Amino acid sequence: MAAKKAIETFSKSLIDEVHKWGCFKQTGVSLRYMMEFGSKPTQKNLLISSQFLHKELAIRIARRAIELERLPCGLSQKPAVLKVRDWYLDSFRDIRSFSEIKNMNDEKEFTEVIKAIKVRHNNVVPTMAMGVQQLKKDINPKIINEDFVEIHQFLDRFYMSRIGIRMLIGQHVELHNPNPRPHVVGYIDTRMSPVEVARNASDDARSICCRQYGSAPDVHIYGDPDFTFPYVSAHLHLMVFELVKNSLRAVEERYMNSDKVSPPIRIIVADGIEDVTIKISDEGGGIPRSGLRKIFTYLYSTARNPLDEHDDLGVGDNVTMAGYGYGLPISRLYARYFGGDLQIISMEGYGE
């Protein structure tokens, strides 16, 4: 009933157009291409970029809106998921309101529209996570079947697509910055220091840990602070933040009633011939073998479900240490977006 009521707020012609655009093939864009194209943000290039996004964003957003209507186990009917679906339909309508982008005036107006779309979708991840938690609360926890696998596969596609959409919008918008920071091309820092990003992300994670527990273990970072490579610093910050946050929680909870001083979290940044490796280790007790295969699913968390303690928890209004179960799988998607990966090795009784 809720789904029917929500969909009636959108015209049949809009829904038909969404399904039409959802059949088109999307175009991949590499980090190297974005760096090379964005190195000269001339009016001509900005116009070309906006014309590309006018079509590409419509395709990507339409695909996700269609998928949001077809999820198993009644997930599509959950209030949080309906809210996300409406955001995608609204954004598709905003983009298609432009019949064509012919000149720089059109380009500027279109850029403002996609900036607003990016803001509208800020809370998509926690809102979808809320929808999954609403589903978990309504079903028998012993029921694990192929529908859950389908939900996990959808969420991987959905969140990876969201990363791509936000990367394309953010890159285009940042190319309008009249005073970009040195060595920065749009969203891409051509000389990003992983040690510096790790330090900032760790400080942010420790602040949240202190707010929740009253204290936080130290974080020790090892690596060459002068080493840099081209990457999106916001992506690396998110990954390190999530991993350090998990480590801080594990250590803090393991030692909170102990006379021993909490051991520090260790971060090692290694510059290899073919890749850059960042290792984060702790002594928080590790994860049991039975739990390791679940940690990258969206239906699992070692923390309590936030809805168990806060039935009226607002979507996107609170930053918690854990509980929604999307920190690790989302971080792995960010790592994989530009060809990397995230691996967890655990020693039960010690840490990881």
Automatic annotation (TrEMBL):
It holds the Pfam family BCDHK_Adom3. Its main location: mitochondrion. InterPro entries: AK/P_DHK_N_sf, BCDHK/PDK_N, BCKD/PDK, HATPase_C_sf, HATPase_dom, His_kinase_dom. Residues 236-352 form the Histidine kinase domain. It comes from the Eukaryota. Keywords: ATP-binding, Kinase, Mitochondrion, Nucleotide-binding, Transferase. One of its GO terms (molecular function) is pyruvate dehydrogenase (acetyl-transferring) kinase activity. It is found in: Mitochondrion matrix. One of its GO terms (biological process) is regulation of glucose metabolic process. GO terms for cellular component: mitochondrial matrix. It catalyses: L-seryl-[pyruvate dehydrogenase E1 alpha subunit] + ATP = O-phospho-L-seryl-[pyruvate dehydrogenase E1 alpha subunit] + ADP + H(+). Its EC number is 2.7.11.-. Transmembrane segments: none annotated. Belongs to the PDK/BCKDK protein kinase family. This is Protein-serine/threonine kinase.
